[in-house]
Amino acid sequence: QLQLVESGGGLVQPGGSLRLSCTASGFILDDYAIGWFRQAPGKEREGVSCISYRGGIITYADSVKGRFTISRDNNWKTMYLQMNSLNSDDTAVYYCAARRTSWRCPDTGMDYWGKGTLVTVSS
After folding, report:
1. How many CA atoms lie within 13 A of 107 on its CB side?
2. Edge-to-edge strand list for the sheet holding 68-72
3. 3-state SS, residue 55
4. pLDDT band at 31, cuts 50/70/90?
5. Residue range 62-100, pLDDT digits in tens
6. Residue-level pLDDT at 70
7. Phi, psi torsion values for 65, nearest 5 degrees
8. CB-count exposure of residue 71 (10 Å: 0-12, 13-18, 19+)
9. Which of 11, 38, 96, 100 gives 20 to 30 Å between its CA and that of 51?
C-alpha cells in the first residue's frame, strides 16, 4: 500500500525553525514529484514547495522563498521541508503529496496525500 506520512510539526515561537519530514512507504520518491502544501484555518490549501521527479526542478511559493528549503535523503524515501524564520502566517496543517513522473505539483492533480502535520507559530 502506498502511503505518505508527515511528521515534525508542533508549536514554535515566531522566528523559530522546524523541519518537517515526509516518509514514503510502498514506493520510492525518485519516480514522483513531491509537493508540500499547507492549509491555514479558514483558508484554502496552497502550494508551498515542489521538487520534481528525479529532483531536477525545485520551486517555492513567494511567501516562503528564502525561508523554507525542500530536500530529500539519498535513499529517496524521505523528503524534508526545513522552515526558518517562522511567523504567524505560517501556522497551518502541512501536507506532503506525490505525483508520478511529474515536473510539477498541481494542487488538484497529486496522486497521493499524507494526512498532514500541524505547525503552530505562536508566542
Report:
1. 9
2. 3-7, 18-25, 78-83, 68-72
3. helix
4. confident
5. 999 999 999 988 787 899 999 999 999 999 999 999 999
6. 95
7. -55, 135
8. middle
9. 11
| pLDDT surpassing 80 at residue 6 | yes
Is the pLDDT at 26 greater than 80, yes or no? yes
Closest by Cα among 55, 91, 85 to 67:
85
C-alpha cell at 111: 496522486
User: How far is Cα 102 from Cα 45, in angstroms, rounded to an integer?
Assistant: 20
Residue 99 vs residues 33, 48, 53: alpha-carbon distances, Å: 5, 15, 8
CA-based end-to-end distance of the chain: 40
Please state the three-class secondary structure of 68-95 as a single string. Answer: EEEEECCCCCEEEEEECCCCHHHCEEEE
CB atoms within 10 A of CB 93: 18
Residue 77, burial from CB neighbour count under 10 angstroms (0-12, 13-18, 19+): middle
